[in-house]
Known about the structure:
Elements: E1 2-3, H1 10-18, E2 27-32, H2 38-48, E3 52-57, H3 62-72, E4 77-79, E5 86-87, H4 91-101, E6 105-115, H5 133-141, E7 153-155, H6 156-161, H7 173-181, E8 186-198, H8 204-207, H9 209-227, H10 246-250, H11 255-266, H12 271-275, H13 277-287, H14 295-304, H15 308-320
Parallel strand pairs: 1-2, 2-3, 6-8
Antiparallel strand pairs: 4-7, 5-8, 6-7
Amino acid sequence: MSVFNGDRFLALAIESVLAQDFGDFEFLILDDGSTDGSTDIVRRYAQADSRIRPILRENRGLVASLNEMIEAARAPIIARMDADDICRPDRFGKQIGFLADNPDYGVVGSWSEDIGENGEKLVRSGADHPETHEDLIAAIEVGGQLICHPAAMYRREVVRSVGGYHAAFRHCEDLDLWLRLSSVTWLGNIPERLLRYRRYPGQVSSRHATEQQIGTAVAQAAWRERKAGRYDPTADLDRLPPIDELDALFGRPGISRQVREQVALGLLYSASAMRDEGFELLMTHLRDGGRRDGMWRTVARLVRFGEPARALRLAATLTTSSPA
Length: 324
């Protein structure tokens, strides 16, 4: 578990791990330079339970923290957990049992239950995560969801064999890892809701929606390169280049436009993205003659988001430009 200014939900998350019916584990909690009360909470629980190994240091970011804990871990199996979610008591036992019974699988997640910031149950929409490796590969092909990161359990050496998490894919480091692992091991999910996944406006996926969508699109483009037997130019990057430079990075035309379109169409329902650089990315996509599916509905959505000026700009662009 990596923690950065997560004191609001941290105690509940820690207690849900300590309450597992499979109790033979070490609990690595890395405080990534928090400035709120997180450090004190970690220290308090570490003093009360010897299974907790705290790592307290300056801020280096989530990817660096996860890779540091993978190297520090003494067990051959690692369970991921976030500081704002809640494990069901039988989560570890069921996942350990699955990996013991299925040696071909290097990663297993589970279905999850969505909860709000006060723990209230939220209505789920969309399909659950794929169960078998074959289902997961099919989901990759269509850009579907794969494994809920804080519900994942994986074999340490398998993850180390592909270089762990890659720094360039900040905010979607898990997707990039699953895509790389899919060619060296099997991945799947237990069809039970072993994690309560908290959704609220302040979480990372809400605050960094545009960057997350760009990283997702590039990770998928890199997966297609590897699948075609070509070199993956993202492997050694510390940071992804701007979208306009992706054709040069991949060494062929069309990647930049493909990524921009995927991101633009994927951000239409995100209030945070339509209030930040995601909107300008959408406008560039339209000026370049990109797909216009659902754009007039996006005009109305921008008004609901409290962005009337941007709604007018989008409407004017749709009125004065014609599709390619």
